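Section handout, structural biology tutorial.
Before the tutorial, make sure you can parse a SMILES string by hand: atoms, branches in parentheses, ring closures as digits. In the record below the ligand is S-adenosylmethionine, and the chain has 321 residues. In the tutorial you will relate the predicted C-alpha cells back to the input. Do not try to memorize them.
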Amino acid sequence: AHATRVTATDVNPRALHITALTLALSGAPAADVREGSLYEPVADDETYDLIVSNPPFVISPGARLTYRDGGMGGDDLCRSLVQQTGERLNEGGFAHFLANWQHVEGEEWTDRLRSWVPHGCDAWIVQREVQDVTQYAELWLRDAGDHRGDPADYQARYDAWLDEFEARKVKAVGFGWITLRRTGAADPSVVAEEWPHPVEQPLGETVRAHFDRVDYLRSHDDAALLEAHFTLSGEVVQEQVGLPGAEDPEHVVLRQNRGMRRATRVDTVGAGFAGVCDGTMSAGRILDAIAQLVGEDPVALRDRTPAQIRLLVEQGFLEPA
Ligand SMILES: C[S@@+](CC[C@H](N)C(=O)[O-])C[C@H]1O[C@@H](n2cnc3c(N)ncnc32)[C@H](O)[C@@H]1O
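Predicted structure of the complex:
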C-alpha cells in the first residue's frame, strides 16, 4: 500500500493469479503481474525504488518444487537475483532479499557474498543461521513431506542431496537477509556479518538507519570523527562479567534493546567513552579526559580509538549528535 506502482513477477501463473486475488481482497491497488523468470519480464529501462523477493532459495539437486527450488544449480538463483538487481534499482533505491548461500570448503562465506554485490551498491548482509548439509537436506525433505512416503525414496533423495553438496564441496548452508542500496558511491560499503540472535521486528527503520550511518561514516575520516559529537543510542545497557568483588571485569559488553539487539565487547576506554557520550563534548575532548584519568598519552589514545568509535557508530550504539 505504500507503493504507487507495483510490478510482480513469477514463473508460476497460479502464483500470479493468487497475487492479484490477494491484492484485490486486501483492497490494495492492482499490481502489474508478469509471468517469467526473475527480471526477464522487465524491460531494461524499467527501474525501481524498492525491490523485494522471497525467492526460491533452496539449494537442492534438480528443480523438483517450483515454490522453493531455484533450479539453477547451487546458490546460483540467489546470486543471479542479487547481481541483476544493481541495474534495476533507481539511485537511492533499496532491495531486500531472503537468501540461502553455500559455505564452500576453503572459502569464507563473507567473501562469497561480497562477490555477489553489484557495482554501485552498498550492501548489508546478515547471516541469521547456518545448517550443516545433513540438517539442511532433512529440513527440506520434511518440508516437502518426503519423510511420510516410502523410506527407500526418502533415502535415495537424501543421498542425492548429499552427493550434490559433496560434488560442490559444500559443507553448510547459510540463511539470511541481503539488503542493497544503489548509491553510485566510489567506495561502496559492504557489511557481511553473523547475527543469529533475536531482533526487534519489524526492522524497516533499523535498515534505513544502518544506511544513514554508512553515509555518515563514509563522509567522516578519523580526524572528522574526533571533532564530532555523539550520543549513546536509546536503551543501550552495559553488562560486565568477572569474579564477584574483582576490581576489573573480565569483559564488558554493550547491549542494545532495540532494533538488531546487538551486543558488542568493548574495552575500558570504549565503555567509558560510550558512557560520557551525551552530545556535549567532542569525541576528541572526551578521549583527552579519559587519557588523563587512566594516565595514557592523549595523542596515542586519539590515534588508536577512532576505529572503535567507527564500529560503535556502524553498529548503532552511538549516534552522531
Ligand atoms: C518462496 S516462494 C515465495 C512466494 C511469495 N512471494 C511469498 O513471499 O510468500 C518463491 C516463489 O518464486 C517463484 N519462482 C520460482 N522460480 C522463479 C524464477 N526463476 N523467477 C521468478 N519466480 C520464481 C515460485 O513460483 C514461488 O511463487
